């Protein structure tokens, strides 16, 4: 009877305790989401901050200076080993083992770059090619070396003013050397001393007979200079004698070919080493050339230790695994992008001039002429010139391989027409292309085969490819696997002007394989890169229905041949070689315009219609290159077409953009003045939740304290260093330069030894095709920042190499967006993992230095999204990149730093990027407009001044740079001031997540955490006990009754 | 028949009614104009429907007169369902509070300078609806816990 009464009580208690347990379990999760507010309310603390050195969030991987230095050297040597590309290797000329060498050419004894600075560390233990050969035990012909080193070069030092600071520096110099700076679209002297001059420089008359011809390999090394603000001009070569030859500066000159001929006469075999960041024209020395040599190798630009790696490859100490990051062609005139290069003036560019009517500069005459790379002296909007990137996506191999494919599979496309043909009347791939993208010979015989492909077609999905590498040789070695794909090119694409390359590089990887063995290597890449941008119809990313052909191949040409073979084509159809046909296909049954139409909760649709010249002319002024009709769409030079701004129905809007009036300061709602609410940029206020989430209210509240003066002032004067804000107390963060790493000098406290860690070579990283090496370099670069206690670096170039003529290609990776994308991913992630901000340069089509500070770059949105921006996407969206520098030029008519569609919609929105956004050098206040930059999301304008985070640095409270800007002028534009604070929020958030705030926080158990846990366990236990009791009491009396 | 039901059955009927009312209030709340329009709460309707089905099963199981082992099995099944129902309803309530806390805070506790913009009639009506929804669900959960203490059959004379 008693049991019968107790049973319902137990059941009821069980219901209550089970409900309480459920409440506490779910409630604990919810409370965790409101932890900061609960802590505030209850006065508890969920996190403690560890400030001792051992608790730092970012700790160097290296315990001693020696270890750090060794790691930097190791990376540099690996870049030489993995980046050296064997382009040609006949008659077993390579590897060099057991042979002597005779070194010819200025660069053999002074490889580019030879002067320390941004590109070269210049440490005392640097190794040049001569020493690297000697270290490897290779005998160098002394006679030739003597007259080159002592007679021709005569190394000495000179006092040279620093380009930026003007300070006098001691630099290495030579009596005769190649020209290191090509200049700005001017003539370029190829200063190679021809053999006919050797005796004039001290060579003995019988120097030729002092070479043991049968046992000597001639090594000829030729360099091309490079540099910021430099652009090669096609056909601008000047020979050693100082005569203009009309030849291309990127072709080997007659003097260089004469050196090669001399080497061929005096040595049994000849190898040419290309020491350049610019792709050269090598048909003279390639197979069938008049000066054909046995071997050609690409060695990029050599920093302090890469020569050791190069020689390790040349001597066969290590297998050659480098591959060409660009296509080498017979004549650069065959490149579609070269048809529109350099740029020219609008026919009526002067309509943009102000004769004093610009309300920002009343009474000031402002012209609209080129100002040069470093700004001008008289007022100019610098918006008079333009180029049209009419080649669309067809840059580099994407043009050559697609046209080759179409010449076989789509002959009606006009692929074999004369348009773009430079070698004969009909276009022929093998006449135009000397070495294809991805080409690189291996010493060891191997095969690569794609075993499987898996495509996860979701917003964040990946393509996963397994490549099998078989080492057919009798030596262990390292090998390169490259993954390519062909997307379907459908009637839909043709109707809507969606262009598809016949083959697209996706990613690559390297693997060590023992002699005779087979290894598998897995290559992954985000699936989103498989999609194409349709800017005319779907106005978003699309995946066409049909078969996607994936293949592993040693270069783009082998890849396209594999695909052709898989599709049933043979040499009978015009293929230039039989191919394996080894592909894996992935079929998409239905057209997909939704999977990649949303990114990071942002709708992906057209944002850059106004980047197209046709938008402004409202006419079909520009015809973009299309594989539908190679002949009819071959780009014309749009600088030879008369473009009149005043003829446009949108001329008023167009002129406003060219004047930099993207945004105009409003006289509307009053901005809120910042007041001190007691929040600070410190570890008391910034805890785990704030570090994790930029949407945490703390950040808005923190920047809400910044005064109007400082909010606007800190953004528009944000270069060189970020300064301390009055109500924020953020630390000063100094910005550092160096595409090869931090240029600052480290001094070891114990020994006094000095060292520079900028030992990297961007060119050789590109030709390494190894994203893991990119990560390793990024991590070493980040480590060096920790050692130098410098946390912010403009330290990598990711602009697409659109043409070979850009004088800054040595800072960039490749003609291919995806190779650049993956390398950028590696470098930026490596730095981010060490807490270092490494900002890549110069996002947004800064693909020529000529008139970089103002030229309008017109293009369509498919090119906008799939070329230069894609180069940066890997590092800024996929990796944790924390900074980026924006292009100098305009996108369409709009200064790239004013271009909100790129910065706000794509970078912040679609990519979810939360880092810094800097302009390039603010050298022209009539071109860079402060209010427009703020509204576009720029976090800091690079004005290269310090301690100037105020508006009122000028007379009478006005700004020193922009006299129309004052606190009063912006105080009634709440949107502008709010946006400035928003931009600074990203800056402060990024610093908090970097080594700038190098402390760690630890979660601790508060009393209310303990209380919730206790309630969970106690209620859980009670629920179980009462449940059991209820069951027992329910069953037992019934049984007794039955008994 | 109706008059013959025990207090326990009546409690369960009240719980079922409150749960159905909660779903109706919820549906009106997210379909009507205001701050919480289209702001659905994960699993809320599903859990409520399951709870109502369980309650129906509990009431149904109490109707036939069974004896012996069948009575024990029926009692165990019915009892487990009556323990599970308040747990489900509690989860619904917690989920609803979690989903609505930010919004209610925004509507009722925003800075004075934006209160006028925030406290529109539609938003206030939406907030009231959500609070009514919470009260209904809370009451249903509490009644369900109470119901678990009662037997479902009337004492035989």
UniProtKB/TrEMBL annotation, chain A:
<keyword id="KW-1133">Transmembrane helix</keyword>
<dbReference type="InterPro" id="IPR002772">
    <property type="entry name" value="Glyco_hydro_3_C"/>
</dbReference>
<comment type="similarity">
    <text>Belongs to the glycosyl hydrolase 3 family.</text>
</comment>
<dbReference type="InterPro" id="IPR036881">
    <property type="entry name" value="Glyco_hydro_3_C_sf"/>
</dbReference>
<dbReference type="InterPro" id="IPR026891">
    <property type="entry name" value="Fn3-like"/>
</dbReference>
<protein>
    <recommendedName>
        <fullName>Fibronectin type III-like domain-containing protein</fullName>
    </recommendedName>
</protein>
<dbReference type="InterPro" id="IPR013783">
    <property type="entry name" value="Ig-like_fold"/>
</dbReference>
<dbReference type="Pfam" id="PF14310">
    <property type="entry name" value="Fn3-like"/>
</dbReference>
<dbReference type="InterPro" id="IPR050288">
    <property type="entry name" value="Cellulose_deg_GH3"/>
</dbReference>
<dbReference type="InterPro" id="IPR036962">
    <property type="entry name" value="Glyco_hydro_3_N_sf"/>
</dbReference>
<keyword id="KW-0732">Signal</keyword>
<dbReference type="InterPro" id="IPR001764">
    <property type="entry name" value="Glyco_hydro_3_N"/>
</dbReference>
<feature type="signal peptide">
    <location>
        <begin position="1"/>
        <end position="22"/>
    </location>
</feature>
<feature type="transmembrane region" description="Helical">
    <location>
        <begin position="1015"/>
        <end position="1035"/>
    </location>
</feature>
<feature type="domain" description="Fibronectin type III-like">
    <location>
        <begin position="479"/>
        <end position="556"/>
    </location>
</feature>
<dbReference type="GO" id="GO:0008422">
    <property type="term" value="F:beta-glucosidase activity"/>
</dbReference>
<keyword id="KW-0812">Transmembrane</keyword>
<dbReference type="GO" id="GO:0009251">
    <property type="term" value="P:glucan catabolic process"/>
</dbReference>
<keyword id="KW-0378">Hydrolase</keyword>
<dbReference type="Pfam" id="PF00933">
    <property type="entry name" value="Glyco_hydro_3"/>
</dbReference>
<dbReference type="InterPro" id="IPR017853">
    <property type="entry name" value="GH"/>
</dbReference>
<keyword id="KW-0472">Membrane</keyword>
Automatic annotation (TrEMBL), chain B:
<feature type="transmembrane region" description="Helical">
    <location>
        <begin position="7"/>
        <end position="28"/>
    </location>
</feature>
<protein>
    <recommendedName>
        <fullName>ABC transporter permease</fullName>
    </recommendedName>
</protein>
<feature type="transmembrane region" description="Helical">
    <location>
        <begin position="40"/>
        <end position="62"/>
    </location>
</feature>
<keyword id="KW-1133">Transmembrane helix</keyword>
<feature type="transmembrane region" description="Helical">
    <location>
        <begin position="83"/>
        <end position="110"/>
    </location>
</feature>
<keyword id="KW-0472">Membrane</keyword>
<feature type="transmembrane region" description="Helical">
    <location>
        <begin position="130"/>
        <end position="152"/>
    </location>
</feature>
<keyword id="KW-0812">Transmembrane</keyword>
């Amino acid at each position: 009877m008693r049991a019968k009464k107790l049973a319902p009580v137990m059941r009821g208690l069980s219901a209550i305790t089970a409900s309480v347990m459920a409440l506490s379990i779910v409630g604990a999760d919810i409370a965790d989401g409101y932890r900061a507010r609960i802590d505030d309310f209850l006065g508890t603390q969920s996190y403690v901050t560890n400030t001792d050195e051992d608790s730092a969030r970012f700790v160097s991987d290296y315990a001693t200076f020696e270890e750090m230095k060794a790691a930097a050297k190791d990376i540099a040597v690996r870049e030489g080993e993995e980046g050296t590309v064997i382009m040609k290797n006949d008659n077993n000329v390579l590897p060099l083992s057991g042979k002597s060498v005779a070194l010819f050419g200025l660069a053999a004894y002074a490889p580019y770059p030879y002067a320390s600075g941004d590109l070269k560390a210049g440490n005392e233990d640097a190794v040049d090619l001569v020493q690297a050969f000697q270290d490897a035990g290779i005998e160098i012909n002394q006679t030739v070396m003597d007259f080159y080193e002592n007679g021709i070069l005569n190394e000495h030092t000179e006092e040279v003013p620093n380009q930026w600071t003007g300070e006098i520096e001691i630099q290495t110099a030579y009596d005769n050397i190649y020209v290191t700076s090509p200049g700005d679209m001017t003539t370029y002297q190829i200063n190679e001393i021809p053999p006919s001059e050797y005796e004039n420089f001290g060579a003995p008359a019988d120097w030729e007979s002092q070479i043991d011809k049968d046992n000597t390999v001639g090594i000829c090394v030729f360099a091309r200079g490079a540099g910021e603000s430099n652009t090669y001009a096609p056909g601008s070569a000047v020979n050693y004698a100082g005569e203009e030859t009309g030849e291309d500066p990127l072709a080997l000159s007659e003097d260089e070919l004469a050196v090669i001929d001399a080497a061929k006469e005096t040595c049994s075999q000849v190898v040419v080493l290309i020491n350049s960041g610019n792709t050269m024209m090598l048909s003279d020395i390639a197979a069938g050339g008049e000066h054909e040599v046995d071997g050609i190798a690409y060695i990029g630009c050599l920093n302090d230790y890469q020569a050791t790696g190069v020689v390790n490859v040349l001597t066969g100490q290590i297998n050659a695994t480098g591959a060409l990051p660009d296509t080498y062609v017979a004549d650069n005139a065959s490149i579609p992008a070269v048809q529109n290069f350099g740029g020219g003036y609008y026919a009526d560019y002067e309509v943009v001039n102000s004769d004093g009517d610009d309300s920002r500069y009343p009474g000031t005459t402002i012209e609209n002429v080129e100002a040069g790379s470093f700004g001008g002296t008289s007022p100019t909007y610098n918006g008079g010139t333009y180029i049209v990137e009419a080649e669309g996506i067809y840059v580099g191999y994407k043009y050559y391989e697609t046209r080759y494919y179409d010449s076989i599979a789509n002959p009606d496309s006009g692929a074999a027409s004369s348009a773009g043909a430079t070698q004969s009347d009909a276009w022929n791939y093998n006449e135009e292309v000397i070495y294809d993208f991805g080409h690189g010979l291996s010493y060891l015989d191997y095969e690569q085969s794609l075993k499987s492909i898996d495509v996860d077609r979701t917003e964040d999905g990946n393509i996963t490819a397994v490549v099998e590498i078989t080492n057919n040789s009798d030596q262990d070695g390292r090998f390169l696997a490259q993954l390519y794909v062909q997307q379907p090119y459908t009637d839909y694409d043709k109707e809507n002007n969606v262009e598809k390359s016949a083959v697209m590089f996706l990613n690559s990887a390297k693997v060590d394989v023992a002699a005779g063995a087979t290894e598998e290597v897995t290559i992954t890449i985000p699936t989103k890169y498989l999609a194409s941008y349709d800017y005319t119809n779907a106005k978003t990313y699309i995946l066409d229905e049909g078969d996607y052909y994936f293949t592993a191949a040693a270069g783009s040409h082998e890849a396209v041949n594999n695909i052709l073979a898989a599709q049933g084509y043979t040499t009978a159809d015009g293929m230039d070689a039989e191919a394996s046909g080894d592909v894996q296909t992935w079929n998409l049954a239905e057209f997909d315009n939704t999977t990649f139409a949303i990114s990071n909760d942002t709708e992906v649709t057209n944002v850059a219609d106004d980047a197209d010249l046709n938008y402004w002319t409202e006419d079909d002024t520009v015809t973009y290159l299309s594989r539908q009709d190679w002949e009819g769409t071959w780009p014309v030079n749009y600088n030879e077409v008369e473009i009149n701004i005043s003829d446009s129905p949108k001329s008023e809007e167009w002129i406003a953009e060219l004047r930099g009036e993207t945004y105009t300061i409003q006289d509307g709602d009053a901005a809120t003045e910042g007041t001190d609410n007691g929040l600070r940029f410190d570890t008391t206020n910034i805890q785990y939740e704030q570090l994790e989430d930029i949407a945490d209210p703390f950040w808005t509240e923190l920047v809400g304290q910044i005064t109007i003066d400082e909010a606007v002032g800190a953004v528009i004067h944000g270069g060189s260093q970020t300064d301390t804000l009055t109500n924020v107390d953020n630390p000063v963060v100094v910005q550092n330069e160096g595409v090869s790493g931090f240029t600052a000098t480290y001094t070891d406290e114990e020994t006094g030894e000095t060292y520079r860690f900028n030992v990297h070579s961007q060119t050789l990283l590109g030709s390494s095709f190894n994203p893991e090496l990119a990560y390793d370099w990024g991590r070493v670069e980040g480590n060096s920042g920790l050692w130098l206690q410098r946390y912010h670096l403009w330290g990598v170039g990711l602009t697409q190499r659109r043409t070979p003529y850009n004088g800054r290609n040595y800072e960039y990776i490749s003609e291919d967006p995806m190779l650049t994308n993956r390398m950028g991913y590696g470098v930026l992630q490596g730095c981010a993992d060490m807490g270092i901000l490494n900002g890549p340069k110069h996002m947004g089509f800064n693909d020529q230095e000529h008139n970089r500070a103002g030229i309008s770059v017109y293009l369509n949105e498919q090119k906008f999204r799939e070329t230069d921006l894609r180069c940066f996407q890997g590092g800024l969206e996929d990796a944790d990149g924390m900074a980026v520098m924006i292009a100098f030029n305009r996108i369409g008519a709009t200064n790239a730093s004013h271009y909100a569609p790129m910065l706000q919609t794509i970078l912040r929105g679609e990519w979810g990027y939360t880092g810094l956004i800097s302009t390039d050098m603010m050298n022209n206040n009539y071109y860079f407009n402060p209010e427009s930059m703020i509204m576009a999301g720029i976090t800091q304008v690079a004005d290269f001044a310090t301690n100037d985070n105020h508006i009122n640095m000028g007379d009478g409270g006005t700004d020193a740079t922009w006299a129309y800007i004052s606190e009063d002028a912006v105080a009634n534009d709440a949107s502008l001031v709010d946006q400035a604070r928003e931009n600074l929020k990203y800056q402060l958030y990024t610093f908090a997540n970097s080594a700038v705030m190098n402390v760690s926080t630890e979660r601790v158990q508060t009393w209310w955490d303990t209380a919730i846990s206790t309630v969970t366990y106690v209620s859980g236990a009670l629920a179980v006990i009462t449940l059991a009791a209820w069951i027992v009491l329910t069953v037992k009396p019934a049984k007794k009754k039955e008994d | 028949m109706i008059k013959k039901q025990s207090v326990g059955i009546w409690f369960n009927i009240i719980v079922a009614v409150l749960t159905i009312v909660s779903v109706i209030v919820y549906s009106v709340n997210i379909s009507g104009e205001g701050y919480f329009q289209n702001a659905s709460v994960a699993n809320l309707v599903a859990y409520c429907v399951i709870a109502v089905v369980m309650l129906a099963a509990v009431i149904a199981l109490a109707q036939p007169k069974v004896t012996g082992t069948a009575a024990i099995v029926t009692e165990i099944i019915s009892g487990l369902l009556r323990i599970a129902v308040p747990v489900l309803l509690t989860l619904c309530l917690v989920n609803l509070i979690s989903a609505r806390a930010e919004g209610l805070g925004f509507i009722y506790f925003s800075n004075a300078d934006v209160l006028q913009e925030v406290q529109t009639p539609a938003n206030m009506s939406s907030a009231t609806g959500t609070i009514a929804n919470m009260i209904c669900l809370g009451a249903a959960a509490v009644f369900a816990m109470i119901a678990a203490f009662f037997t479902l059959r009337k004492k035989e004379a």
